User: What shape does this take?
Amino acid sequence: MKAALITQPRTLKLANLEAPQAGHGQVRVRVGATGVCGTDLHLFEGHFHARLPLVPGHEIAGVIDQVGPGVEGLQEGQLVALDPVVSCGQCWACRRGQRQHCLHFQALGVTRAGGFAEYVVAPAPNAYPVQGLSPAEAAFAEPLGCVAWGIQRLRPEPGSRALLFGAGPIGLLLMQALLISGVAQVAVVDPVAERRTLALKLGASHALAPGEPTLDLAPHGFDIVAEATGAPAVVEAMPRYAAVGGKLLIFGVAPEEARVQVSPYDLFQRDLSLIGSFSLNGTLPTALAWLESGRVQVGSLISHRLPLEGLEQALAYKEHPGMASALKVLIEPGQS
Ligand SMILES: [Zn+2]
Ligand SMILES: [Zn+2]
Assistant: This one.
């Protein structure tokens, strides 16, 4: 089968590998679409102590084409979305219901072969049947599952007003999820005009460029201030926009070594909550419910649908001028 392999930092090769076989308790999926995500960029750059060579790709949807022994309830021909988190179920973190923090954490496309290939093998419990979606839409189940975990962590209160920094693909998913989780309005801040336009189309109450007077919209501050930028400067500014009792959600992936200054007194005195949200934790079904019901729209977030050969330009996007303004890039390994 054709697969994209990161062989060493910043080197991606198209390889012909032997197709994997579904073992006991596993299914094999013929990949329909796999989303490219910031994590893939980090792996490509050699961060996250990636064990190379690696077939990346963890936002995977496709059709089951082989069912291993001992699997119940799944059949060949079913379209499924894959939860990439493979946890042991037995360690301290798993027993506490924090499987994304499993002490023996594995993930498709991160520590084991992922979806930038014609076929991928996954534990059967990680495969969720999908109704009425295309593989391209179903590939959003994973990033939207991360958003669903963020919403669970945040617990938005009905009628909240939110301010969201970042209207990239993940920000626009988070914005939609906030709006169907009790939040009355979301104002979005992003430097890119096309993204602001899209945010308004998808339900943002306001879309502002950085530096526009955000607090005019909520003179006493916002109940929720969220970021999907990973930019330390944004995180540092967030408390300034929060109302008393406000919640701050850190959703973007900042550089590991980044540090910001916050005032502990300010957090204390204004009853602010600072909330992190990592990966997804059994929240892929929530994402599928949002997608299948049409409550979260993903069609307009897709900017590129490329064959495996196109992955290199998506990862080395800085050298490919057209990719800098990309939204979601999907790789469709069946296409070529
Ligand atoms: Zn991702
Ligand atoms: Zn575990």
In short: Residues 85 and 107 are 5 Å apart (CA to CA). The first strand starts at residue 2 and ends at 8. The two ends are 13 Å apart (CA to CA). The mean pLDDT is 95.
